[in-house]
Amino acid sequence: MPTRLPPLRQDFLKNGAHxxxxxxxxDCVIFGFHENQLKVLLLKWQNGPWCLxxxxxxxxxSLQESATRTLRxxxxxxxxxxxxxxAFGDPSREKGKSKNExxxxxxxxDRFITIGYYALVEHSKVKPRPDVLSDECAWWDIDSVPSMxxxxxxxxxxxxDALRIDLYSHPVGxxxxxxxxxxxELQRLYETxxxxxxxxxxxxxxxxxxxxxxxxxxxxxxxxxxAPYFYRFNLTQYKRALTxxxxxxx
Amino acid sequence: MPTRLPPLRQDFLKNGAHxxxxxxxxDCVIFGFHENQLKVLLLKWQNGPWCLxxxxxxxxxSLQESATRTLRxxxxxxxxxxxxxxAFGDPSREKGKSKNExxxxxxxxDRFITIGYYALVEHSKVKPRPDVLSDECAWWDIDSVPSMxxxxxxxxxxxxDALRIDLYSHPVGxxxxxxxxxxxELQRLYETxxxxxxxxxxxxxxxxxxxxxxxxxxxxxxxxxxAPYFYRFNLTQYKRALTxxxxxxx
Lengths: 250, 250
What we know:
The structure is a homodimer.
Chain A: H1 7-19, E1 20-34, E2 37-45, E3 50-51, E4 54-58, H2 63-75, E5 83-88, E6 113-122, E7 134-141, H3 152-169, E8 181-182, H4 183-194, H5 200-209, E9 213-219, E10 229-233, H6 235-244
Parallel strand pairs in A: 1-6
Antiparallel strand pairs in A: 1-2, 1-4, 2-3, 2-7, 5-6, 8-10, 9-10
């Protein structure tokens, strides 16, 4: 830790409690999907460990607004649909915090409950950059994330569970796939998120039964196999399912 | 409002902030299921409106512990599996609160973020009773709940959505049905929660594919139709699915 804090940081530690609610933070788990890889976006504290991009809740801000602003300020990411997935409130979740000399006698020394949000983005479409408090902002493969502060590993695990469970009740893919795509491409997206193979016939049958896909007349040519049809999402149905979950599961 | 507050209530208003975290509460949506009816348990503030049973988070308590304790203290309900479903953090969620003279200049006048929990119980098995702050504790049919304080209607709506979506990813029924039950009885439970009819063949096929049911040799006799088989839950599989969601959806 630096012996002399920069002015901005001093002010944040000293006066943050006038701007933000006590005891409350937000943490964002940003999943990146690109070429059948699932990644997560992490920040590195200056001279410190890696962490999820997180922040605090201003006195007149909603939780969703806090998460959106935090992400914009800390990573320069905008226009993501952030999905709240869990509030983490174990009193021992911030292990090692009491040893942080910089936080001593400040509002940051208190216990914090953090509200977790996640989003899934096509990671080549976004250009994250670190904020003034961070050394780095980088994508990590979800199977090989570095050591992280506090309970951020558990928050990540819970976000992966939430993302997988949401696959069973909500549509996914609109902002991850090209406008028209084939059934095998959609299947690979699901397999990547679930971390396992799926039976081709069951997948196709299931997907078509959900009534969010429209088959185009065009086929994709150039592969070794029989040219597969292109599909696109029916956006009205897709958005409806995003809001209410699958109405037609049974 | 009474002009003179009872001592316990005075102390709570004056000194609560020494015991509880600021800005944070928990609210419990307790669904009761009995004879194909879905109900919700509500409290009535003394001389005031109806509300969900809620409370505050002690300084060294986890959120889950707060919800469990709150429910026990306020309704005498114990041993429920409370499922966290959403954190409500709209800054305007507590409409009318600023007019409450009793809260003025106390920690309760602050803005509160509330963490919602729900549980589903066989309501004839539990004996709720109101706490000292409430006039009544009663089950209401979910289609005809009375006017409630703040955003409690929205919290209830969100809990119903969460319960329905959880049906698609998690098993339900173990503590709601008798130890052995028929497929039509299980289907009626699902239909009641979803608020709609389900095709009998699809339901049976789906349920059997989830591998949480064991068919017994015994059949239920006495009905007008062909005697249906009894089933019971395979508890190992059931509990696994409760934790990880359906592994075998595809």
